[in-house]
């Protein structure tokens, strides 16, 4: 059972409200009452809109009901007293008892504080970032990868069993184009392999106006799909080298996975044919004999619209899964893949260790032609982190699954959509090299190196100094925190424009700012002569100032993690981190901690609880907190 002080106080408030409602002749369930309860940002500790609900049952003014309920409520252990404000019931915690509950809850399980039971052990696949193995990650890929990583962290802290999966499309046209360049263009890799390959890919694209080259590439794509030729072997070889290089980037941002699923292995496992067979059995598919879609295997858009919303006025009558010439579309392959994810098709994949040990100490597995069976897939839920431009095909996929299994489609297949990423003009001014694509598109490697450089410059200008002998290590950690925070502080579906000024603001509203709050807490505790658990009487020194404000924020950690996980919104967590960092700063700036007399034991305990909470929240964001900066 996870410690959740706010939940305990909420349950007591609900019980007191229930007793008050019974005095009015109204019997309500605990769940109904708890739905009416919220935590206001200021003025009161806890609030309820229950009078509105009761008013609908007994036809009485909700303000009068609120007054009667508040006057009739007794004091609880954690609820001190309630007041009616119009139609609302607002209450205050017993500061002493609630403060004791919060501090002791954190101390009970420091590493697990903030965790919750939302997922109850359900298994979920998070698929991200699924970058083609022909180029380095650019900043759009990076946003995808960071979102996937943090959503995985949040779900793990919410009691889900999480499988972090990276889908590698090694049969696409981009791979065939890269293979042609790999075979025909001069020069050998003289830099990070994914960057070298990306530059070759750009060069090949400039040559596509030559019809002979285009035909050779088309022929190569067929060879790769057949999978039996020397060229197909070369394609897998360079694709694996590219993925290895991409994972150097991933590791530099603290991003890790459990398994790579290669499209060529999906084809080899022949799950596509079985998936189509199941879809035919369930009468999901059609094969028109006449008209636009004659000879194609399609799903009817009208059927999809009956089970999912958001498609709008789609002009097409159907979505093609298999073309009339027998070739399958990307949607068809994606459908088959998700049939495997959800366990409709038994796993026939074999696995090898792609990497024996990632920097997090865990192996990275990969599907392969030969290997061992592993327990991947067969999940209760699948989350696909894919750009907003893919909203329509993801809705179609969700619709097909809803036709197949209503619960699976509606509740269990999630498209986590995200907006584009831009850089303010001139922020990486004049940097040459790196993969540029059709227009300037900075790599994730470029971004990190620039962030490290700027971090060092800011620290030098400010007169600060990093911990002795650890300047490079700390600068890298702070840079990663800055980038991650800047990518996550905006709701995923919104476009972001990366700003150095915002990301590297050490004074407020940034990842480095939150890291400094944690380091300051560590420093205070380090200077203390003695650290001990506060006794019951120590909580008499809890005031109604920033010390209590901080305690109330600490109490919200489990609820914040659960909300961010449930809504797939890491920005809920970044907002919370900024709130607790700011309040902690005000606390130690305005209230003495060391040498604060009889209040010292309690205040040091509050600093310790704040440090634990900050650390756990930073880790959920994929940021390793530092004791010294």
For the record, the CATH class of the domain at 453-620 is Mainly Alpha
Measured between the Cα atoms of the first and last residue, the distance is 35 Å
- The fraction of residues assigned to DSSP E strands is 5-15%
Mean pLDDT: 90
Helix proportion of residues, in percent?
40-55%
Structural class: alpha/beta
Judging by the overall fold, what is the CATH architecture of the domain at 453-620?
Answer: Orthogonal Bundle
Number of strands: 16
CATH H level of the domain at 453-620: which superfamily?
A: Isoleucyl-tRNA Synthetase, Domain 1
Shape: globular
**pLDDT < 50 runs, ≥5 residues:** 426-440
In which order are the strands of the major sheet placed? 11-12-7-6-5-13-14
Overview of this protein structure:
- The chain is of the alpha/beta class and 629 residues long.
- Among the domains are: 5-93, Arginyl tRNA synthetase N-terminal domain (Gyrase A, domain 2); 453-620, Isoleucyl-tRNA Synthetase, Domain 1.
- The chain has helices at 5-23, 30-35, 50-58, 62-72, 95-108, 139-156, 173-184, 193-206, 211-226, 230-252, 263-269, 271-281, 301-307, 330-341, 391-404, 406-412, 444-462, 471-488, 500-503, 511-527, 546-555, 557-567, 570-590, 600-620, and strands spanning 37-38, 46-48, 79-85, 88-93, 123-127, 161-168, 259-262, 285-286, 297-300, 318-322, 350-355, 364-368, 381-387, 413-418, 421-423, 496-498.
- A 7-stranded mixed β-sheet has the order 11-12-7-6-5-13-14, with helices on both faces. A 4-stranded antiparallel β-sheet has the order 1-2-4-3. A 3-stranded antiparallel β-sheet has the order 8-9-10.
- The protein is globular.
- 46% of the residues are buried.
- Residues 426-440 have low confidence and may be disordered.
């Amino acid at each position: 059972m996870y410690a959740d002080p706010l939940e305990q106080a909420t349950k007591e408030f609900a019980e007191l409200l229930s007793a008050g409602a019974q005095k009015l002749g109204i019997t309500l369930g605990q769940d109904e009452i708890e739905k009416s309860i919220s935590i206001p940002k200021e003025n009161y500790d806890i609030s309820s809109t229950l009078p509105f609900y009761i008013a609908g049952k007994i036809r009485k003014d909700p303000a009068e009901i609120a007054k009667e309920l508040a006057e009739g409520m007794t004091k609880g252990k954690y609820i001190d007293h309630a007041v009616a404000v119009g139609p609302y019931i607002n209450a205050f915690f017993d500061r002493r008892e609630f403060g004791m509950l919060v501090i002791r809850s954190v101390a009970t399980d420091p590493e697990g504080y903030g965790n919750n039971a939302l997922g109850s052990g359900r298994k979920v696949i998070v698929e991200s970032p699924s970058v083609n193995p022909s180029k380095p990650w650019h900043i759009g890929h990076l946003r995808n990868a960071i979102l996937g990583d943090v959503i995985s962290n949040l779900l793990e802290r919410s009691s889900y069993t999480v499988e972090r999966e990276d889908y590698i499309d090694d049969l696409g046209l981009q791979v065939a184009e890269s293979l042609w360049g790999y075979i025909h263009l001069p020069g050998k890799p003289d830099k990070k392999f994914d960057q070298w390959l990306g530059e070759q890919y750009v060069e090949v694209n400039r040559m596509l106006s030559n019809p002979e080259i285009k035909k050779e590439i088309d022929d190569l794509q067929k060879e790769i799909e057949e999978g039996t030729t020397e060229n197909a072997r070369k394609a897998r070889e360079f694709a694996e080298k590219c993925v290895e290089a991409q994972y150097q980037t991933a590791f530099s941002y603290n991003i890790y996975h459990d398994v790579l699923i290669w499209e060529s292995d999906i084809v080899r496992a022949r799950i596509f044919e079985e998936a189509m067979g199941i879809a035919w059995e369930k009468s999901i598919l059609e094969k028109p004999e006449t008209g636009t879609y004659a000879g194609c295997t399609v799903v009817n858009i009208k059927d999809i619209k009956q089970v999912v919303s958001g498609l709008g006025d789609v002009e097409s009558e159907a979505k093609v899964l298999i073309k009339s010439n027998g070739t399958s579309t990307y949607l068809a392959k994606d459908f088959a893949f998700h049939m495997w994810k959800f366990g409709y098709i038994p796993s026939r994949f074999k696995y090898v260790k792609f990497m024996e040990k990632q920097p997090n100490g865990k192996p990275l597995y990969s599907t392969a032609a030969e290997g061992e069976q592993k327990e991947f897939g067969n999940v209760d839920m699948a989350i696909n982190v894919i750009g907003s431009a893919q909203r329509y095909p993801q809705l179609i996929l969700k619709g097909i699954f809803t036709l197949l299994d209503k619960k699976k489609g509606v509740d269990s297949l999630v498209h986590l959509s995200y907006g584009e990423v831009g850089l303010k003009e001139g922020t990486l001014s004049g940097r040459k090299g790196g993969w540029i694509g059709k227009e300037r598109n900075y790599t994730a490697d470029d971004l990190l190196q620039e962030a490290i450089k700027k971090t060092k410059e800011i620290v030098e200008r400010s007169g600060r100094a990093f911990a002795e002998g650890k300047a490079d290590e700390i600068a890298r950690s702070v840079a990663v925190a800055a980038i991650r925070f800047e990518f996550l502080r905006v709701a995923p579906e919104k476009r972001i424009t990366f700003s150095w000024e915002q990301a590297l603001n050490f004074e407020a509203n940034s990842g480095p700012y939150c890291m400094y709050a944690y380091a300051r807490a560590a420093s205070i505790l380090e200077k203390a002569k003695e650290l001990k658990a506060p006794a019951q009487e120590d909580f008499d020194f809890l005031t109604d100032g920033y010390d209590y404000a901080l305690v109330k924020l600490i109490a919200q950690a489990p609820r914040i993690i659960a909300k961010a996980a449930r809504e797939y919104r890491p920005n809920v967590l970044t907002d919370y981190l900024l709130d607790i960092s700011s309040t902690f700063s005000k606390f130690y700036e305005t209230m003495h901690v060391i040498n604060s007399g009889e209040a010292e034991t309690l205040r040091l305990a509050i600093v310790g609880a704040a440090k634990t909470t900050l650390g756990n929240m930073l880790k959920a964001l994929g940021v390793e907190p530092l004791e010294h900066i």
